[in-house]
C-alpha cells in the first residue's frame, strides 16, 4: 500500500509539470500543445461514466488479483485500447453503438467488482480493453478538430492511468477487509450502467 501511495504521488507530480510549464511557454505552437494536453487530461474527469469505469477497473483488478503479476493486466489493457479508440475517434471512424457499449461497460465492470471474479491476466485485459475502445472513440470524437488533439489524447491516457491507480489503491486497502463496501460500490456502478442503458436504448 505504501508503494501504491508513493506511486500515486509521483504520478500526480509528473502530471503537474506540463501544467506548470504552461505559464512559461513562449512559443504559440507549444502553448497550443500544452493546452491540448491539459484539456485531454481533464477530459476523463468531466464524465461520471468514464470516471466510474476507469476507477472500477482498477478496483476490480486489486480485489480479484491473486498476486502482483496480474494486478496491472486489466488497467494496462484498458489504457492501451482507450488509446486505440481515441485515435479511431480522432480519425473520424464510424463506430456503431458507442454510447450503449459505454453503458454496458459500467454494468460489466460493476458486476466484476461486486463478484471479485478472477480472470487470467490476458483475458482480463481483453475484456476491459474491448469496452475501453468505445470510451476512447467517444473521447476522440469530442477532441477531434482541436489543434492539440494528439497532445490531448496523451493527457487523457495519463489521467486514465491515475484513475486506475486510485482504484487499485482503494481495492488493495479493501481486499483484506469486509466484502460489503466493494459489493456496494460494484452494485452502484452496475446500476449506473443499467440507468444509462435505459436512456440510450
UniProtKB/TrEMBL annotation:
Membrane-crossing segments per the record: 47-64, 71-91, 97-115, 122-141, 147-172, 184-200
Q: Output this protein's name.
A: HupE/UreJ family protein
By its UniProt entry, which Pfam families does this protein fall under? Answer: HupE_UreJ
Leader sequence segment: 1-23
* Keywords associated with the record: Membrane, Signal, Transmembrane, Transmembrane helix
Amino acid at each position: 500500500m505504501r508503494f501504491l501511495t508513493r506511486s500515486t504521488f509521483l504520478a500526480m507530480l509528473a502530471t503537474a509539470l506540463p501544467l506548470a510549464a504552461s505559464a512559461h511557454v513562449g512559443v504559440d505552437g507549444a502553448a497550443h500543445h500544452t493546452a491540448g494536453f491539459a484539456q485531454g487530461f481533464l477530459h476523463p474527469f468531466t464524465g461520471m461514466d468514464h470516471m466510474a469505469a476507469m476507477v472500477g477497473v482498477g478496483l476490480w483488478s486489486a480485489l480479484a488479483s491473486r498476486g502482483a503479476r496480474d494486478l496491472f493486466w486489466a488497467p494496462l489493457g484498458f489504457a492501451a485500447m482507450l488509446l486505440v479508440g481515441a485515435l479511431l475517434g480522432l480519425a473520424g471512424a464510424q463506430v456503431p453503438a458507442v454510447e450503449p457499449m459505454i453503458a454496458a461497460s459500467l454494468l460489466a465492470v460493476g458486476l466484476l467488482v461486486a463478484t471479485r471474479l478472477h480472470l487470467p491476466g490476458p483475458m482480463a485485459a481483453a475484456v476491459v480493453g474491448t469496452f475501453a475502445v468505445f470510451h476512447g472513440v467517444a473521447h476522440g470524437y469530442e477532441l477531434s478538430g482541436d489543434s492539440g488533439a494528439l497532445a490531448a489524447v496523451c493527457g487523457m491516457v495519463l489521467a486514465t492511468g491515475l484513475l486506475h491507480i486510485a482504484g487499485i489503491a482503494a481495492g488493495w486497502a479493501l481486499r483484506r477487509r469486509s466484502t460489503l463496501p466493494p459489493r456496494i460500490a460494484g452494485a452502484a456502478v452496475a446500476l449506473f450502467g443499467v440507468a444509462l442503458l435505459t436512456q440510450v436504448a
